[in-house]
Predict the 3D structure of the following.
Amino acid sequence: MIDTLYFFEGLGFSLLLGMLIGIEREKKSQIAGLSSFGGIRTMSLVGMLGYLVYVFFGEAMPLFSIFTGGFLLMIVSAYVISSVLGKDYGATSEIATFFVYITGVLVGMGEYLIATVVTLLVLALLYLKKPLHTFVKRVEKEEVYDTVKFIVVVFVILPLLPNQTFGPLDILNPYNIWLMVIFISGISFVSYVAIKLVGPKKGIGLGGLLGGLVSSTAVSMSFSNLSKRSKSIVDPFVFGILIASSAMFFRVLLEVTVLNRALFPTLMVPMGAMGITGVILSFFYWFKRKGESRTVTDKQLNLQSPFQLWPALQFGLFFAALLFISKFVSLNFGDQGLYLTAFISGFVDVDAITVSMSNLSLAGDISNFAAATTITIATMTNTLVKGIIVLSFGSHTVGRKTFTALILIMAVGLLSLLLFKLNLVDGITSVVNGVAW
C-alpha cells in the first residue's frame, strides 16, 4: 500500500527537479533562437515519469527495464531525427533529459539528496557552457597529458602502496607519503584550473592571488622578470607579488586544518598576522597605482601544471626526507634542531615542512608549539627568498618596494614568535580553540 502523502511529496519533488533543468534548456533555446529537444514541460514530465516508473515497477525488474529501455530508445530516436533533419549533432539536451529521468528514479528510491546533487551538477554543466569551452581553449595539450598520467599513477600506485611505517625511526609510511603528494597537488590543481577558467587577464592581482596558491615563488620570479621589461609599471607588480606571498600563509593554514586541526589554533596567530599584514600592504599598492596596466597573460604568469609527474615525485621524496630528518633532529637535538631544519627547507619549499610538522605533531612526536614555530620559521625563510628574487631579477623600484614590504611581513612573524616565547599567545589560542572547535 502506497502512503498517499509520501507519494505526492516524491512526485512533486521529481517535478521540481525536472523543472529546474527544463527552465535552463528552454531559456537557452530562446536566447539562441532555436528549438530544443526538452523545455520546462518536457523535463517536468520526464522527471515524474522516472519517479512513477520506479514507484510502480521498481520491484518488477523486467518491467522497469522495459520502460527505461523504451525511454532511452525514444531519446536516441529523437537525437537521430534532429541530427538528420536539423544538422544539429549536439546531444546535450538529450543526455540532460535522460539525467532528469534518472533523478526521478532516485526520488522514487528515496534518495532525495543524491537526486538534488545530480540535478545541481547537471544544471551547472549546462549553465557554464561558455566558461567551460573557454577553459578548454586555454588548456595546452601537454597539460592534458600531464593530468592523465598523474591520475593514472594515483589510482594505480596508491592502492598498491603498503599502509604501514618503515625505516630506522619507524616514521616512513609509503601510502601516507603518496597521499600527501596527492593532497598538495590537488590544492595547486584547483587554483591552476581557476586561473585557466577566469584567465589572468582579469588582472595582475587575481593572477597573483590564485598563482600564489599554486606557487608564490614562481609568481614572484615571473612578475619580477616582467617588471624589468615593463619599467613603467610598478605598483601593480608590487601588489601581485605581495598578494601571492600572502596567499602562501593562508594556504599553510588550509593544509594544517585538513591534516591536523588541533595545530590550527597555535599556528593561526603567526600565519594570520603575516598573511593579513601582506594583504594590507598589497592593497596599499593596489589603491596607490596611477593608471598603470594590470593585465597579464597565461604565459607571462609562467605557472607549471601541478600534475606533472616528476615534480610530484620530487615533492614526495623531499617530504619523506624532511619527515625522517625532523624526527631524527627532534630526538637528538630537540626543538633547536627542528628550527634549523625549517630554516634550510624554507629556501626550497614550505608545503613539505608544513605537512611533515602536521603529521609529527598529530602523532605526538613533537608539541604543537614546536610544530607551529618550525612552520613559521620556514615561511619566514621562504618570504626572504622571494624578497631576494625580486631584488635580483625585478626592476629597481619594484625590487625596493617589494623587499621592504616582505621584510615588514617577516618582522611581524618574528614578533609573533617572540609573543610565543613570552607565552603571551596562550590566551588567544585557547579562546580560538574553544570557540572554533
Residues 309-345 form the longest helix (37 residues). Residues 133-436 form one domain. The mean pLDDT is 77.
